[in-house]
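We now fix the convention by which a protein and its fold are recorded. These numbers are not coordinates but entries in a learned vocabulary of local backbone shapes. A record is reproduced here so that you can trace the correspondence yourselves:
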Amino acid sequence: MRKTILVTSALALVLSACATSFTGEAHVEGGPSGCVAKCKRWGLEFAGMVAMGEYSDACICHVPGRAATSSSDADSAAVAGGAAGVWMQHQRSTSSGTGTY
């Protein structure tokens, strides 16, 4: 009985979870110059951009005075995680037929 309640509760939690959704444009308007402006508005410095195929791109900003590292495992993991999230959202939206984010 206890196992049934636990499984039912877990299933209800999983089924009621909200899917991740993204809002806004998938591409940075103006490309790198748009990123420079965006980073400045946030009080940060432009470090680079990430392009994920034809689906989206993003700015990479860093704290002023701190060098951006290109070989850090943590940085690589963060970029990979972001790319995976965008890709999964894209797959969901195209399989559902909406084609939007």
